[in-house]
Amino acid sequence: MIGLGSYAFFWQHSDRVERPLSLIDEFEATRELDVDLFQICDYAPLEGMTDRELKDAAGAARDLGLQIELGTKGIEPEHLSRFLALAEIFEAKLVRSMVTGPDSAPTLPQALAWLTEALPAYESQGVTLALETYEQVSTKDLVELVAATGSPNIGVCLDPANVVARLERPTEVVELAAPVTVNVHAKDFAFARQDGWVGFTYSGAAMGTGLHDYPHLLREVRPRERGVNEIVEHWLPWQGGAEATVRAEQAWTRTTVDYLRSIR
């Protein structure tokens, strides 16, 4: 299933625009594109919401016919337990996270110990934990960590854009992680020469115009055959002003949704 994530609204809910979107505003914008899935990912206000606000947001999602996934950073057992409770409120069946959190960078043995402690509750609730490919942990180590847990309720959130910072090749990462991929972050990326030809900027690109070989990902991961959701997000640079940036972000979202729907 194609879904939108919080990073598709990165600028629209930021304090750099005059009227930042609320979470429910983002739900409504998602349904306007005839999309049935939303991943609340790295959305800072979520953990500060009251029980009433959480229930209202979850109710709004249900009323709109939206399925919800959650996303956070870090794998400390108490943190994962908190997001499991949030998953129950939103009826979410997937929580995306990262091995490295805001306040922790565990060794691989420590990460395995934390996951071993946290995963039984995820299994009991029928929720899958998806650990994202990032430069802090090699993809090989991440895949081996997932396998070492022995749990059916853990896998990889595949985002080939992130791994370039570790000098990993996106296509190789796709092939390595494909068997254990349970979630995909769908965005394009490219290098552009800086002014004066002194180096490059690595940033987002409109889907289908950059370096991401998405057809290769579809062949290797087979997300639509396996029921792996594809979550739209962007790395959109600030466009010089709020109005131009919001227009570009909205256009990139429409472009990505159309691209994913058209490609097989």
Give a brief description.
The chain has one domain (2-262): Divalent-metal-dependent TIM barrel enzymes (TIM Barrel).
Number of helical regions: 9
Query: Taking strands numbered 1, 2, ... along the chain, how are they ordered across the largest sheet?
Result: 1-2-3-4-5-6-7-10
Q: Helicity range of the residues? A: 40-55%
Low-confidence stretches: none
Class inferred from helices and paired strands:
alpha/beta
The value of Rg in angstroms is 18 Å
Report the sheet with the most strands, covering strand number, pairing sense and barrel closure: 8 strands, parallel, barrel
Mean pLDDT: 97
Distance between the termini: 13 Å
Taken as a percent bin, the fraction of beta residues is 15-25%
Topology order in helix (H) and strand (E) letters: EHEHEHEHEHEHEEEHHEH
**Outline type:** globular
CATH class: Alpha Beta
The CATH superfamily bears the name Divalent-metal-dependent TIM barrel enzymes
Number of strands: 10
Looking at how many chains there are and whether they match, the oligomeric state comes to single chain
Q: How many distinct folded domains?
A: 1
* CATH topology tier name: TIM Barrel
